[in-house]
Amino acid sequence: MTNHYQFDVSMSCSGCSGAVERALSKLKGVTSVKTDLKSQTVDVETTPDVEFETVQAKIAKTGKTINGGRTL
After folding, report:
1. DSSP class of residue 26?
2. How would residue 19 be classed by pLDDT, with cut points 50, 70 and 90?
């Protein structure tokens, strides 16, 4: 079983989405990261031990604005 989180993140270019992807891919337990510039979303799949708040904090460290998030 995996956790699936989606975040609404303000990203203006591929460099922004790339920074988020790189940061999350370094987080232990993250199995998949998909960013979508058009919809301004980041979909993250993790192992069951990675909490929503942990992923959210990692995105926040990139300096991007998080406008919302949810568990799917």
Report:
1. T
2. very high
